[in-house]
From TrEMBL:
Its EC number is 1.-.-.-. The lineage of its organism: Bacteria, Pseudomonadati, Bacteroidota, Cytophagia, Cytophagales. It comes from Negadavirga shengliensis. It holds the Pfam family DAO. SUPFAM superfamilies: Nucleotide-binding domain (SSF51971). Keywords: Oxidoreductase. Residues 34-377 form the FAD dependent oxidoreductase domain. It is an enzyme of class 1 (oxidoreductase). One of its GO terms (molecular function) is oxidoreductase activity. This is NAD(P)/FAD-dependent oxidoreductase. Signal peptide: none annotated.
């Protein structure tokens, strides 16, 4: 059912309060929505896409706090997020094997869905495989010993008997993952924004949401709420700022990119130590990030800021393990806030009537957001007018 009126909005009747919206604002920028989505990252944009595909006559408003998306969707390392052999085996040691395999299947399906609406060249997508690097013989043989079983378990999902295979690169033992890929996260999000706007969504930037209740979304410095049928909170690692009791917790990740190098021998995507460290080339630059396992307590935060011990460790890794040219310098560095749940599967739930949250991808949102959004939208259904 479409919304045709603004039901019983609370008003501040203080005549001196100048923040009350005008008629012009109410009838254009603040008109009621069938669905409000908080967050213009991958999750929010994918939710908008699926909802408008299912209900093309309905209205969708996407609210973004900053002037442009600024969460993990555009502050990641640009990996397609399949998962290394060491990481998958570590997951299987802590949870049911079938749950891990189902999650891999969801990653593959989600990435395929993204590629169906965002052409590969529009997001610089390349699926040339990636390597898991080992500097420890015991760790390598521990993973290598499970490759046959892991490949057999993944064969139906990946369509190949050799998803993983032993390799060597630049003097190190490695395990090649045929399904790993890389992309340009900024271009991906930009194209998704263009796509959902063409479908009819509204995007409002500078919209700092301070609270959410059933049917209402309150913005900072706004007297009256925005009215909506359903609300999706797609803020991932920032979810606890709106719902402190949410099981989605923040986790900070650090990434640096070097200045262009005259010669770079690391020209694929790479993982190290169960996926906690990741690096790749961006043209002739080296991008490297992660290592949050070195100080997990400090990094369980939604505050941006560079942890000097993690930065120092990664620079040492570049100098002594990757051994790129001497005198290299950092050109870009940043931190992004990921969302982690109790398990690695994303959390999708109705947190109160007609208010839904989706997030907690444990660093795998690039490949999982599209399919997770589809599943959530299929459960929400059409607008249910409040009592």
């Amino acid at each position: 059912m479409k919304i045709f009126s603004n039901p019983n909005r609370p008003h501040d009747h203080n005549p001196l309060n100048t923040s009350l919206p005008s008629y012009w604002q109410e009838t254009v920028f603040r008109r009621p929505s069938d669905l409000i989505i908080i967050g213009a990252g991958l999750t929010g944009l994918c939710c908008a896409f699926h909802y408008l595909q299912q209900y093309p006559e309905n209205t969708v408003t996407i609210l973004e706090k900053g002037p442009y998306p600024s969460g993990a969707s555009v502050k990641n390392a640009g990996f397609a997020c399949f998962g290394s052999a060491g990481e998958l085996l570590a997951d299987m040691a802590h949870e049911d094997k079938n749950a891990v395999l189902k999650r891999v299947e969801k990653r593959i399906k989600g990435l395929e869905g993204l590629r169906n609406i965002v052409p590969d060249d529009a997001m610089d997508f390349r699926e040339k495989g990636g390597f898991e690097l080992f500097t420890d013989q015991e760790a390598y043989h521990r993973v290598f010993g499970h490759l046959s079983h892991l490949n057999a378990s993944l064969a139906r999902t990946t369509g190949t008997d050799t998803t993983f295979e032993p390799a060597s690169i630049n003097g190190y033992q490695a395990i090649l993952c045929r399904k790993e890929g890389v992309l340009h996260s900024g271009k991906l999000v930009k194209k998704l924004i263009q796509t959902v706007l063409e479908l009819g969504a509204r995007l409002i930037t500078g919209a700092d949401v301070v609270s959410v209740t059933s049917g209402k979304v309150y913005l900072k410095n706004e007297t009256t709420p925005l009215v909506t049928g359903n609300t999706i909170v797609a803020t991932n690692g920032y979810t606890s700022s709106l719902f402190p009791d949410s099981k989605i917790k923040p986790a900070r990740g650090y990434v640096l990119v070097t200045q262009p190098l005259s010669k770079l021998q690391w020209r694929h995507s790479f993982h190290y130590y169960k996926g906690f460290v990741y690096f790749r080339n961006v043209g002739n630059r080296l991008l490297i990030g992660g290592a949050r396992h070195l100080d997990p307590i400090t990094e369980n935060t939604s505050q941006d800021g560079i942890n000097p011990s993690i930065k120092s460790w990664l620079m040492h890794f570049v100098n002594h393990i990757l051994k790129i040219e001497e005198g290299w310098r950092i050109d870009y560095e940043w931190t992004g806030i990921m969302g982690f749940g109790e398990k690695k599967d994303p959390l999708s739930a109705e947190i109160e009537k007609n208010v839904f949250i989706l997030g907690g991808y444990s660093g795998m949102g690039v490949s999982m957001a599209f399919e997770s959004a589809r599943e959530l939208v299929s459960k929400i259904g059409n607008y249910h007018e409040p009592d």
